Amino acid sequence: RKEVEQDPGPFNVPEGATVAFNCTYSNSASQSFFWYRQDCRKEPKLLMSVYSSGNEDGRFTAQLNRASQYISLLIRDSKLSDSATYLCVVKDFGPSYDKVIFGPGTSLSVIP
Amino acid sequence: NAGVTQTPKFQVLKTGQSMTLQCAQDMNHEYMSWYRQDPGMGLRLIHYSVGAGITDQGEVPNGYNVSRSTTEDFPLRLLSAAPSQTSVYFCASSYGNGGEAPYFGPGTRLLVL
After folding, report:
1. pLDDT (tens digit per residue) in A16-42
2. Which residues of A touch B41 (CB under 8 A)?
């Protein structure tokens, strides 16, 4: 089983739609969680951190369920500019190590 | 701040050649890492460093060397390039051990013929 798994995608949605991405992770000791966005041929960029209480940033809402080892990202009112690949990222760290694991990504295309 | 910078942006090598991919950050981040990204494989960790003078292997370290003599720089060396090393290479950095998210450089596209 992969350490971080995501919906295989691709997701093709019309403008204005709501879309949800799911992610699961295998290491129950993982401590930090993030969603990144990656545009074609560009570097990944941090979209938002994910907190246990859930957090929102404009049209984006992230949720974490530690018991189920599950992370989600909800995008409301999709824009054409949201078209990208979304990466689920899990981090485990300690006094002498810092392990960041990326999911394979889910591709989103927002269609006019 | 320039953030994380990488050079070169593009490189073509012949099999057997060696080269160094440069990575630098000006955010005083302790933690730096190298990833490669291949179609259908996602980002895979090559090597990482938790501070100057300390490096460790990631998931796919074979064929690569790293060193960390300063906090700012973390070069990646390809000892003898192989076609299997054709990829996009990303360098990332973050603050010292903790929950912070890594920041990425713009990447180096490498083609090995």
Report:
1. 999 999 999 998 888 899 999 999 989
2. 104
Distance CA B107, CA A71 (A): 27
pLDDT at res. B74:
98
For tokens 């003599």, the residue is B69
- Number of Cβ within 10 Å of residue B13's Cβ equals 19
Residue A46's nearest CA partner among A37, A33, A59, A58 is A37
Q: Among partner residues A91, A95, A96, which is closest to B99 by beta-carbon distance? A: A91
pLDDT of residue A1: 67
Find out whether A58 and A106 touch, Cβ atoms under 8 Å: no
Q: Does A51 touch chain B (CB under 8 A)?
A: no
What mean pLDDT do residues A48-68 have? Answer: 94
In this prediction, the residues of chain B whose per-residue pLDDT falls under 70 are 97
Q: Report which of A110, A104, A109, A111 is spatially closest to residue A36, judged by C-alpha positions.
A: A104
- Residue B18 φ/ψ, nearest 5 degrees: -115, 155
Q: Which helix (H) or strand (E) holds A100?
A: strand A97-102
CA distance A10 to chain B (A): 13
Give the Cβ contact number of residue B40 at 10 Å.
5
Mean pLDDT of A77-102: 89
The answer to whether B89 touches B64, Cβ cutoff 8 Å, is: no
Alpha-carbon gap, residue A10 to A110, rounded angstroms: 11
User: What DSSP state is assigned to residue B80?
Assistant: S
**Which among A49, A101, A104 has the least Cβ separation from residue B101?**
A49
